[in-house]
Design a protein that fits this description.
By secondary structure, the protein is mostly helical. The protein has 8 helices and no strands. It is elongated. The chain starts with a helix and ends with a helix.
Length: 190
């Protein structure tokens, strides 16, 4: 798998999807509290973020499975994230959490589905899944640390929110490539 550009794009996409999720889960309640929201309400908002993910994990794989290429879905998912993170600059924290949740749920399901769609064989799917998740979760582990570090050195959440936008852009770029109608076995033969 390490010689396949497609496998790397799936892995990096998976990493940034997980990075967005883990950074949101780790830091959004603190961000909300720093903005004056009661800690209980901030926890409730995070719960809503998690609940917003659930329907997307069922809806997006069904839609994606009926398409030859899923690039447009990656753009839609990225839009959910971008809307959610943009709303963090406003007083609409509740809507920010819901849109970020819609993005997380749909992004996770598409990443998992790509392990099957981007391979022709069962063996290829297993190998892609193992490679994608191993590399992806290694990448993802950096996100919460980076957000906390940026907050510590700037004493502001603005740089961390900008970091989230960067994560979304990388997710989208790699996802557009991974969402094309191709399989890893073809790359390994060429």
């Amino acid at each position: 798998m390490s010689r396949s550009k497609l496998a790397w794009m799936v892995a990096i996409m998976m990493g940034f999807q997980s990075m967005l999720f883990s950074t949101t889960a780790a830091w959004f309640p603190a961000l909300m509290v720093d903005r004056g929201i009661d800690p209980k309400i901030a926890g409730f908002y995070l719960m809503l973020n998690q609940f917003a993910q659930v329907p997307m994990t069922f809806i997006f794989p069904v839609i994606a499975g009926k398409m030859k290429a899923q690039r447009i879905l990656v753009v839609i998912v990225s839009s959910f994230f971008l809307i959610g993170y943009s709303l963090l600059f406003t007083d609409y924290a509740l809507m920010a959490m819901i849109f970020a949740g819609l993005g997380s749920g749909s992004a996770f399901s598409i990443c998992m589905l790509f392990c099957s769609l981007r391979a022709r064989t069962k063996e290829g799917s297993i190998a892609l899944s193992g490679f994608g998740q191993s590399v992806g979760y290694l990448i993802a582990s950096i996100g919460p640390f980076m957000m906390g570090y940026l907050h510590d050195i700037t004493d502001s959440w603005t740089s961390g929110i900008i970091l989230l936008f960067v994560m979304v852009v990388i997710f989208m770029i790699t996802g557009i490539y991974a969402g094309s109608n191709r399989v890893v076995e073809d790359e390994q033969l060429s």
